[in-house]
């Protein structure tokens, strides 16, 4: 019955045990997990576009090979995550349809343009850095298939972060023009990176329930603070300035104080009003229709019942 199912579920959560696909779970838990995993999968797939635009324009063969590998990893992450959503009864084609009809979200960060090759480095350093901060605790998320996918994804994200930082280190040893490109990219990506962690806790409708279900292990503001504390010494080592006049070490708190991102901008970008939203979805829709014949051929082959 529903009540014994919810008891078994509650006990598993209380004992820090994983919830597996065949276990009974409250409908709200299933819905929340599908929402978060789908949004995460869509982010990985849409996230291939901003850096993908630089593959043909990478300055050397070495940089091109690294960037190709990174963008391919993101496709892989999207696929593990869609598979994790399928264990909850979601249908991959339906999730893609929801994305291209604007009924399901993806991360706000991918709605900003990549204006120079320094953006590739800054995305690796800050965007993958923020992704790692957010995703390492998700390796302990209560839903088994999601938590296990996160372990592998985090290993690859660490490589992405290091390649970005190494690229920036190289540019910072270069000409004044190259150094200025890096600073300009940092100025444009810093605030959007802070927004990746979501709205402030007081305005986050899902955090309390997701923490109670141990889907999320930290609040949005806790992870944002961790990211700022981690990034400040890295910026100093690189020789760039973070564009926040309020940023300073607070001895008493043992953390950095920092300014507030423009939360109205986050709202606007999440609801489709960012610079690149239309273009990102247009290209995703195009890729979906260009690939339709492959799905039809695969389905026809499967229907023959031969392997
Ligand atoms: N953008 O109540 P909360 C990557 C939505 S990393 C868009 O706080 P929640 C790697 C939120 O979904 C990026 N929407 O929600 C990579 C909710 O929507 P609802 C992907 C946002 O879920 C790097 C509403 O606002 N990572 O792809 C954003 O408890 C480089 C209210 O918010 C993940 O998805 C946002 N920034 O917390 C790839 C991580 N923030 O209820 C390529 C997993 C909030 O209307 C290149 N996800 N919303 O459906 C999470 O940890 C959580 O879902 C949060 C949001 C923390 C993002």
TrEMBL record:
<dbReference type="InterPro" id="IPR009078">
    <property type="entry name" value="Ferritin-like_SF"/>
</dbReference>
<feature type="region of interest" description="Disordered">
    <location>
        <begin position="283"/>
        <end position="307"/>
    </location>
</feature>
<dbReference type="InterPro" id="IPR007814">
    <property type="entry name" value="PaaA_PaaC"/>
</dbReference>
<dbReference type="InterPro" id="IPR011881">
    <property type="entry name" value="PaaA"/>
</dbReference>
<feature type="region of interest" description="Disordered">
    <location>
        <begin position="1"/>
        <end position="21"/>
    </location>
</feature>
<feature type="compositionally biased region" description="Low complexity">
    <location>
        <begin position="297"/>
        <end position="307"/>
    </location>
</feature>
<protein>
    <submittedName>
        <fullName>1,2-phenylacetyl-CoA epoxidase subunit PaaA</fullName>
    </submittedName>
</protein>
<feature type="compositionally biased region" description="Basic and acidic residues">
    <location>
        <begin position="12"/>
        <end position="21"/>
    </location>
</feature>
<dbReference type="InterPro" id="IPR052703">
    <property type="entry name" value="Aromatic_CoA_ox/epox"/>
</dbReference>
<dbReference type="Pfam" id="PF05138">
    <property type="entry name" value="PaaA_PaaC"/>
</dbReference>
<dbReference type="InterPro" id="IPR012347">
    <property type="entry name" value="Ferritin-like"/>
</dbReference>
